[in-house]
Each structure stands twice: as C-alpha cells, then as structure tokens.
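Q: Give me the 3D complex with glutathione.
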Amino acid sequence: MKLYTYYRSSTAYRVRIALNLKGLAYEAIPIHLTKGGGGQHSAEYRALNPLGRVPSLVLDSGEVLTQSLAIVDYLDETHPNPALLPSDPVQRAKVRAFSQVIACDIHPVNNLITLQYLRRVLKHEQPEIDAWYHHWILQAFEALEATVKPGPYAFGGAVTLADICLVPQVYNARRLKVPLDKFPKLVAVDAACLALPAFDRARPENQPDAE
Ligand SMILES: N[C@@H](CCC(=O)N[C@@H](CS)C(=O)NCC(=O)O)C(=O)O
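A: Here is the predicted complex, encoded as structure tokens.
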C-alpha cells in the first residue's frame, strides 16, 4: 500500500497510527502541503484525491481511498485485530461521537486551507487567526475532557478510534501553543498512547519527510 502523507498532517497521522496498530506495512509518499504552493493542488495529486487533501491510501489493487476516517474504517473491516471500535453498540456510538468532535467539529475549521482563506481572502492578521484556531480547539477540548475516562486510553484499556483522533489533535494544539492545563485527562490519554510503539512510530518527528 502507498500512503500519501505529510508529516504534520493530523489526518495522515490518524491513518499512520491505524496502519501501525494493524501491523500493516506501507510506503510513505510525502506531499508537501506548503512548498511550491502545496503539492496537494497539483493536477497529478488531484487525479488521486480530487479535493486536494492528504491522506490518500492506494491499495495493492490500485484502488484509491480518501478521507482518514473512511480509510481507518476500511483497515478495521479488512484487518479486524486489534479492533478499533468496541463491540457494544452504545460504547461504539460514544467512541464515534468523540472521534467526530475532532474530525468534524475541530479539524475543518482549523485546516490549512481554512486558515489560508482567513489570511489571504478575508485579510485577517496572524493574531486573529491564532485566536480563531485556539477558540475552536478550546471549545471542543472542554467537551472531550468532560467525556473521557482515562483507562488509560480514552475509552478504557483498549485503544480505539477515539485515541487515533485525539493524539494528532493534541499534537496540533501543542504546535499552535494552545494551553492544555485545563485538560489533564486528555493529556494523560495522549501520554499513554504515545508510550505505544504504533503511536510513537506515527509521530510527525519520526516521519521521513519531517523537517
Ligand atoms: N476530512 C479529511 C480532511 C483531510 C485534510 O483536510 N487534510 C489536510 C491536512 S491535515 C490537508 O490536506 N490540507 C490541505 C490544505 O488545507 O490545503 C480527512 O479526514 O481525510
């Protein structure tokens, strides 16, 4: 399999963690999101991923999968061990809800292309853009902190999709200097996950394209 990835992309980070948890080998193909205007906008890359985003996963059959959560679902369905969702339907819905706060409520409003639009088209200054970014993370992290019960992972003693979404988002929050002191449970879950080799190998700083 080939994973089109960028070391700092939180969505590619989710897929790297899932591939590692499942013990699946892949070839990483870096797409630089800013250099030269962004490799994600090239015609060659858009032929794979018409939205111009990472990640994309090219299967051995040549099929191209996009959208990190759809890719993680595919990996979980085709390689069921270890399972990334609990077997109990209520718990499964809770894990999905936690994950979707990150994937649907935080990520789109703080994505590179959104921040670039604020700066380039709406002409906001960097401090306003930083305030925007912090606002959406803090609001959602408060909700997630209220939900999570470190055990030591977000939903007990087994890693789930919730952890796969949380760790990259905490990385992003730290990179953008969002204070995390009000979120001790999220920070504890992050630390427990990063102690696992599958998460550690997926870290941005451990990628071949890390700068
Ligand atoms: N919902 C998509 C989002 C993908 C996405 O937006 N990825 C970001 C990197 S984290 C990206 O490629 N951004 C490119 C840009 O903003 O131009 C997914 O989960 O895969």
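A quick observation: The mean pLDDT is 97.
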